[in-house]
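Issue: ligand-bound run for adenosine monophosphate - logging full I/O for the record.

Environment: standard queue, default settings, no custom constraints.

Inputs:
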Amino acid sequence: MSTFKDLGLRPEIISALTELGYEKPTEIQEKAIPQVIASSQDLKAFAQTGTGKTAAFSLPILEKIDLNNNQVQAIILSPTRELAIQIARNIEEFSTYLKGFRVAAVYGGSDINGQIRTLNKGVQIVVGTPGRTVDLIKRRKLKLDSVQWLVLDEADEMLNMGFKDELDQVLEVTPDTKQTLLFSATFPREVDRIARNYMNNPLQIDAGKRNSGTDNVTHEYYVVTDRNRYPALKRIADINPDIYGIIFCRTRRETQEVADKLIQDGYSADSLHGELSQAQRDLVMNKFRKKTLQILVATDVAARGLDVDSLTHVINYKLPDQVESYTHRSGRTGRANSTGISIAIVSPGERRKLAPIERIIGKKFIQMQVPDGKEICKKQLLKLIDKVNDFEVNESQISEYLPTIQEKLEGLDRDELIKRFVSLEFNTFLSYYANAKDLNDLSRSKNDRGERSERGERRGERGERRGRRDDENMSRFFINIGRKDKLNPARLIGLINEQAIAKNIEIGQIEILDTFSFFELDKNFTDETVAAFQKNNVDFEGRGVNVEITEKKRAGSRGGKRRSSGGGKSHRGQGGERSERRSKPFGEDRSPKSMNTSGFGRSRKDRGGRRHS
Ligand code: AMP
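Outputs:
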């Protein structure tokens, strides 16, 4: 592996890099730096965020820039204000020992006159967002006729954000003799169009696998019905008490809703999206950078400019519409040699979206089970114990109270004391999760992923279990208990198993409705099933259980009306199910964090989260 010196950089730049802790070049730096130093051929580079691409394009430009010339020699376009500021800051750091060098960042949402004054002083490199750059060009305050380098950073994102016209305009006004360096994590058709129309025989370089997530990222997914999405999110946060991550939502509204729920439930969370003012966004980003916030709920666009290296998790609350956006999201963790986890929470119908992503990232998603209450409690309890162990006691502060405390606790031995303190801290958590239901979607086996019809998928997204294939070998049963009796698929399977109908009997489709439910079992045991429930006089949550054989529903049936074979009795279920969903959008209404009064986790007040109405 080469060093920065081998790549042809001058000692002043290398000194700055050493101070920044850059010991060795990354792959993209190793490929791009010597190429741009040696040749003015255009360059098309596949590179993710987090691969060191900023240095890959800035260092060779700094190496070649004319420090005695105060005209703009390089223009770097980036999709967001935050990224532009970050790039300019990096360039400032790289150029610490380059005398006479100046860089400026120009971006919207900020006073244009201040930026014009900076430009008037003379700068060699301008980093700008497309909109503000075009604005300054039109006002004739930014002159690009001496530009030798044009960098398009995150070209795919700029196009995604609708900056096509602005890019065209900047490309038009820069001299034909310039060298264009285009960096993109993905190469959709629009980026290729730019490369074709505005680049001259570009050399293509790849850093690592094209479009792939970094090797440091593990990709996991959880399958839950839509109504369980938020409760599952909370459990994922609870099983990872040290989480420092971004939760990606698809819309501003969803972002705000999820953030509000988390704040209400006592999590250290806040939202970041385009409807907030720039000042609000800056505030949230600063809190997140300083780790005052553990969880940031964000839209793709708003999170673009956030440069944070040590994220433990990226959570796709909903998968993005475009596969490329997933690579951008997941690329925000596992950076700068640390490891990270990218999680997708998917409904049964959304599982089909995983395969195309796997093809792009070149990795398989690992299916995870939403943790149950017991696992979470164990994890949180151990975390609490570790905290007690590691806590530094301030002797001088508490010494004056110790004699009274000793006196009051006299008679309690060590074991008793431990039990009481732990209970005090932990009881609300334990009781919250005591009867926690299984949130995993149990309606489908692992291997039928992606085999559903479109119609089946849409049904799946409604959290119902009607889209599965009609199995000839199954009988369908009606059971007179449902969601209102706290029945869920796991409990129903348990109930069936308890009847000991036959060893390893196969259970098929399960449909839980408000006040009754349906299940399928191996046809060979039809009579035995009905007989077993009758004989055992089964009781569930105080209700006598009645099981009847019912007609198999036909493919495509909406399932609103079922007729038992017994005597023409009909059961209506759909309306009730929907109204229940409307009134109770999230399954686990309260959080152990919000219920806690003794300071486990952090309360809303001391957390300082910003609320939005
Ligand atoms: P980038 O892809 O340019 O956003 O860089 C991602 C992170 O890696 C930034 O925090 C950089 O400061 C850091 N970085 C870039 N190149 C190197 C290097 N050669 N050695 C150590 N850290 C680096």
